[in-house]
Amino acid sequence: MESSYRRRHRTWCCSFAVPPSSPDNPPIKARKPKPDPQSKPNNFSSVPNSPQSSKSTSRIVARIDPRRILSPGRVSPIEDAVLDPSPLLDSAPQLRSRSFRAPIAAPVPPPPMNSGVGDCFDVRMSLRGKNGGCVVLELNSGVLCANSEVFAGLIGDYRKGGSSNSLSGGGSSKMCRIEVPEVDNLGVFRETIELMFEDDVPKRLLNIGVYRSIDVLEVSAGIMFTKGVLSCLQYLEAVPWTEEEEEKLRNLFTRFKFDDETTRDILGRLYLHDSDDSQPNVARQLVWSITTCVNVNARNELKSLVKGLLCKSSVYEKNHHLDLSKEDLYSVCHSCLGSLITLFEEASSTISPERSTKKDTNKPLIERISRQVDNINWLLEIMLDGQIAEDFVDIWADQHQLLKMHDNASPMVRYELSRVSAILFVAMATRKLQCRLEARSGLLQSWFAPMLLDFGWLQRCRKGLDIKVLQEAMGQALLTLPLKQQHTLFMEWFHHFSRHGTECPNLSKAFQIWWRRSFLRGSETYAIESR
Fold first, then answer.
1. If we measure between CA atoms, which residue out of 284, 289, 308, 285 comes closest to residue 299?
2. 100 pairs with which residues across the strands?
3. Which residue range or ranges hold the At3g05675-like ankyrin-like domain (predicted)?
4. This prediction's pTM
5. Looking at residue 239, what DSSP letter applies?
6. Phi and psi based region of residue 150 (left: phi greater than 0; alpha: psi -120 to 50; beta: remaining)
7. Does residue 446 contact residue 403 with C-beta atoms inside 8 Å?
8. Given 3-state DSSP classes, what are the helix, strand and coil percentages for the chain, each rounded to the nearest 5?
9. What are the tens digits of pLDDT across the range 295-326?
10. What is the number of alpha carbons within 13 Å of residue 79 lying toward its C-beta?
11. 123-158+175-270: CATH homologous superfamily?
């Protein structure tokens, strides 16, 4: 049943309105579409909705509308009309499988339609949302054909069918109708069409922002809107992105292929195109820079930053340029150890002033030693995270020159060496470091006694070290040795603890475990074997 109703005119909006009644614009009667068992609703020219939709294949068919188009870009209701008996055209391209190429010259629009509809507004485009809603745009076919290869093909196919109908005696006053079903975002698609009528596209993109411009770029690439694609790429390349916008742009470039000339600049911000040989190891350069940094605050800030980027639990995906090889890491570590030996030689007055580091002569010796120990411990933490610290245990156990200078150095300086040993003890006790028996034995035989001497200073100058954890770790590390070696080291601790008390680590718990394993259980075993 037909019902006439009046609607108010709005331009480029999502309301379903038509101009008010006037002598120049007679009222339009609309009726709700009713299913016709004798005809099928295949009378719209249809195009894929957006690049994100998986239903990108559609069919094209022309539909006649005798109304005159009155204003550009008007949004109006969908009305039922007489079906056009023209054949169904299957010319909608598979947009997701095509790559975008910037043409050398703009496509030549088809000749104007020979109809009484008007020279300006001869296309009615219906955008149907995936989640409901519909927008109808009345547009100029010349603008559509000049800007979009997809719409140029649809309108050209329609006109071929219209010409054949005209020759056979059909009417020539026809309007081309195009339907875009399953549109993900009606507003973005409409904005993309509006860009075809804009004189200053970059200014329009500046107003809508980066995130929305990426959506417009996607729709422009889907309908082969060359001007829109180039404008979006130029705008996006010139502005900064958030991480969310960058990820969205990466996803877009995985679904669409553009020619190198069009996307060279913007892809240069997303990907590293140089060859592997021409790129230096960035991670090694960062580590070297940090270990030679003099400013304390800057060094601590950069250590936290780089360690977060290099650690295995980092949220950032790493490529070969950010991978720090074991050889590079140990190379930096050996350099720090060499500097540390030089500083202790200076502290023990066994080095000439000419061999001292010139750039650090204005810094106190204690500060320079502490900085090198901090560097070694920081590198050791990276090794432990990458599970490549086993070799460092052997390296530290073989530092005979440092051990010799430790005996003669001042307590306020030598305790810095025990800070390195403390990191290794804690790593072994917490099972972050698994190494051979020979390596554990060599480490404890070399650095256990210095640790007993330096423990009082470690308590006073902790520098982030947990003393309770360290005491527990020392006992657990001793218990990993054979009982005969445990006997020697535990007796050494017992005599030292009896003389220095709280200035010595408390290993009573581990001592009890060693005692039980060595004597009580041994006696029980001997008694059982005797019986």
1. 289
2. 258
3. 276-521
4. 0.65
5. S
6. alpha
7. yes
8. 55, 5, 40
9. 889 999 999 998 888 876 555 555 555 567 88
10. 20
11. Potassium Channel Kv1.1; Chain A (3.30.710.10)
